[in-house]
Amino acid sequence: MVSASIARDAPAKVNLALHVTGRRADGFHELESLVVFTRFGDRISVATDDADSVALSGRFAGAVPNDGDNLVARARDLLRATLRRDGPVFIALEKNLPVASGIGGGSSDAAATLSALASLWGAVAQDQIFRIAGELGADVPMCLAARPLLARGIGHDIEPVARFPALAMVLVNPGIAVSTPAVFRALASRENPPLPALPEDPDFSAVISWLGTTRNDLQVAAASTAPMIGTVLDVLADSGAAFVRMSGSGATCFGIFETDDAASRAAAAINKERPSWFVVATRSTASGESFDG
User: Fold this and answer.
1) Catalytic machinery residues
2) Are residue 17 and residue 136 in the same domain, yes or no?
3) What is the pTM of this model?
4) Which of 3, 108, 113, 277 is the S-S candidate for 48 at Cβ 3.0 to 4.6 Å?
């Protein structure tokens, strides 16, 4: 019998800047990234049940494997094994974000699952949850934090940003999946300068100015494997965005707008021109804000 459910948001992760600063002996790349999380994303709910199951819904449900390869199921199994729990659970995943798209959908789903199940099963030490998150993937710990942050190393070394504003944004994905390993293989340089210091007074103008001094070192490599990324960036720039860039390893790109109304108008216009694309106007959370659920 299904119990009362516990729900968590699984927000999109946006790399506002991403610098590749080196490569480790184990083959992993050293990164520095400024990351924010948006109000738009997936949604996870969990409840005790008579048997384990994962129910999928939402626009991109068909692209999610409904087996042990699903990060949601892996998060469930790893947390349960760590806590030595044996009770089956029902997990519902509302998949609103495109997969393999550079905005951390799977990682955010896994983080939301850990958070929801930890609440369902009782008190779990925060450091224990973050350790489990790290075992699931490099991006899962930052998605568990889900606030403006600086991520370093392979992504596990995270530092919350004390003062960072909410940003009106448009996310656009042209419906193509990009292979992260292929993007890293196409990198021209793996030894690049780190992020500059964040602005002391990060209002909208200061953030846009600061972003102009930063990079996504994966963008050129990703566009070489998926030229449509360049088209998306041009469309966002033409829509009036104050700043455009690709997130993560792509292919999702973002535009930053001065107001929510401007972002909504741009999203509506792009969606009208490119109805097959994933296009959404949203807003990132500021430092100190939290997600519902």
Assistant:
1) 13, 139
2) yes
3) 0.95
4) 3
